[in-house]
Structures are given as structure tokens and as C-alpha cells.
């Protein structure tokens, strides 16, 4: 009888051990100024990951709030996501123009009313249908307060003013960066929201000069340096101007890191000067960033473990 009780206790212990709730790594800035000071290198350096399309994994489709939450169990993250317009001009989170690849719908997102989109379910990258729904921009921004940082990408035809209005409504100035692809777009966003942080493509000194000449100041720029590692001189220039650098590893760099885990590709990329890595592999990149931060004894006062 005693042996039976011990077996039962052991089973109960193992059950508890394998069902321990995951901890979440949340980022929280009290003010927009504090958030911008971090991006402007006015506080201690702490390299971060940007989860491309939110960090999809098996069972977790891209651009879903549940996927964003899952990403926070691996790392304190920046969530990169995409905004599209429904037929009735609702701001919904979707990368493709068509629904077929990532949802149970077919055809153009823009041909559906918001109420119709809510009847669809999202599919993960393997095509498995989940119970998760297409979220709206406001839902995402509300969920992300005091949890993550955001880089907000827009599909063609989505007005920047509508994005900025949503950021204002949800008071997301403390954690949102708006993505632009050329100096004209960056200048437009800065004119509409001069206090907001902007992700702008900067692959050379000339790119930065062009942004400055169009009225975009350095303290509002987060520089996207491309998907191939730039010369260290660009990192040095950006750092001298107080500008954080985002390097996109999705694609070749992610594949190289996965094929050569012992080379610690992600660790080397941040050691060389990247402040943010935009990746499709949050798990592996996170392990290597953790090691780098530990080696350098880096701390992040705005990190909360819950």
C-alpha cells in the first residue's frame, strides 16, 4: 500500500512538473520619452529580438495575438506585424493581400467586411487550422501595453494617419515604432506624428542625410540596415548619432544560423553592432542573445518576468 501511495505521489509530482505555467518576458516603459531614450542609446545597451510576423511556430500562426504572447515566453521581444484594410476600412492584422495561405478564407482581404473576416480561423505555417482569429490593430495595441514593443508594417493602401490615430487612441506611444520604406514615407509619418519613432531604411550615410534633409531627426529614427550584415562603419555612424540599428536575419542569415549552430551567428551579429535582430527563429536567436547578454553582464531595468 505504501508503495502505491509513493507511485501516486510520483505521478502527481511529474504531472505538476510538466504543467508548470510558462513565464513571460515583458518589456514596459512608463513614458514615451523613456522608450525613446532606450532606442537613442541614452541608457545601457540591451540587444533585442524582433519576432518577424510575430514569431510563428507550429500551432501558432503568424500575425495572431496568441502567437505574440507565445513569443514572450522565449524572450523580451519586439513584435513585427502587418496591417491591412478590410472592405469596410477596418484595420486588421494580415500580411498577404489574399487570405488563402494563412486563414480558412479565400480571395482578397479587401473584399471582405470585418464581420465576415471574424468568422475565419487562422492557419499556421504548416497549413494546420487553429482556433485563433484575425485580430484588429486596436486589439493588438491594447494587448501589447506593458508587454512588448511593436514595429508596425503597413500593406499598400493603408493610410499612415489611420495607424497613428490607433496608436494615439491606445496610448501606444510608449512601445510603438512605425515602419517606412523610403524617405518620403518617413517624412510623412514624422509630419503626422512628430513625437513618434520611425523605422527607416538606412544602408549608407547618404540614406541618413536624405532623411535629415527631409526633416526627420536622428532621435526619431530606428535604422533598418537591410538583410545582409553591413560594414561596421555604418554601425559606428548610427551609434554616434544615437540611432539603434535593426538587422533583418529572416532569410539567408537565419538559414546560416540554423545550419551552423556552433558558429553562434546571432551572437556575433549583435557583437558586431546590431541592436535588434529581426528573425524568424526566436528560439535559437534568443538562446544566443541570452549568452551574449550574460557574457557582457547586461541588465535591462524595463524587463519584467511574470
Question: Can you tag this structure with a few keywords?
Answer:
alpha/beta, TIM Barrel, 8-stranded parallel beta barrel, two-stranded antiparallel ribbon, 12 helices, 11 strands
Characterise the protein shown here.
This protein is an alpha/beta fold. The chain has one domain: Phosphatidylinositol (PI) phosphodiesterase (TIM Barrel). About 35% of the residues lie in helices and about 15% in strands. The protein is built from 12 helices and 11 strands. The strands form 2 sheets. The protein has an 8-stranded parallel beta barrel, surrounded by 6 helices. Strands 1-11 form a two-stranded antiparallel sheet. Helix 9 links the parallel strand 8 and strand 9. Helix 11 packs across helix 12. The radius of gyration is 21 Å and the shape is globular. About 5% of the residues have low confidence.
- Main sheet strand line-up: 2-3-5-6-7-8-9-10
Task: Write down the overall geometry.
Answer: globular
How many strand segments? 11
CATH architecture: Alpha-Beta Barrel
Q: Roughly how much helix do the residues carry, as a percent range? A: 25-40%
N- to C-terminal separation? 41 Å
What's the CATH class label? Alpha Beta
Q: Radius of gyration, rounded?
A: 21 Å
- What's the CATH superfamily, by name? Phosphatidylinositol (PI) phosphodiesterase
For the record, the count of structural domains works out to 1
Low-confidence stretches: 4-17
Q: Tell me what portion of residues adopts beta-strand conformation.
A: 15-25%
What do we call the CATH topology? TIM Barrel
Main sheet characteristics: 8 strands, parallel, barrel
Global structural class: alpha/beta
The helix count comes to 12
Oligomer: single chain
Order of helices and strands, N to C? HEHEHEEHHEHEHEHEHEHHEHE
Q: What is the overall pLDDT average?
A: 94
